[in-house]
Fold:
Amino acid sequence: MINKFFKSLFPLVLLIFITSPTTKFYTLKNEDIIKSYITARNNYDIKKVNTLIDKNYYEIFIDGNMEIENKEQLVDAILWGKELDSKINLLDIKSNGETVISIQEHINYLDIALKRKSRKFKIVYTLLNGKIQNQTIDTLAGYYQILKFNSDRYKKFMKYCDQNNLNCSNSFNRESGSHLRKALEQYTIENE
Structure:
C-alpha cells in the first residue's frame, strides 16, 4: 500500500521539480546558455549565436538607449568585433529563474592601440524557453571616469584620422571594423 502511494506521487513530484524555475538544474542550464553565448561571441561563431538567441533579440542600456536593435545588427557587431579582436571576459554570473545576471569586462584592439581602460558592465539576460530574449546593460561604479578617459584617447585618434584622411566611420560592420583596424595600426606605429 505504501509502495503504491509513492508510485502515485512520483509523477507529481517529478512535474514540480522539472517546472520549478528555482531548481538548481534550471538555473545551471540558463547559466550554461549564457556561457555558451559568450564563448560563441568570443569565437565570432554566428551560427552558434543564432541557436542561442530569440528571433526578436535586442540589447538595450538601462537608460533606454538601444545598443543592438535586432539579429542583423548583432551579426554586424560580431563581424566588426572580429576585425578588432573583441573579447568578453565573464567575471561573475548568477541566475534567478529566467534571468541571468553577469558582470563582464569588454576589451578590443581599440583599447590596446589607444591604451584605453577596459569597460565593465552588469549585463542582465532575459531567457524564455532556452533562448536569450534580450540583454539589459548597466554600468558599474567608476564607469563614467573610464568613459571620459577612453573618450579623450578616442578623440585624439579621430583627430589623427581626419588629419591623415583615414576612413574611420562610426559604422558597426565588418568593413568599418577592417578600416578602423588599419587606421589604428598606422596610428600605433606613428605614435609609439
Notes: The longest strand covers residues 87-96.
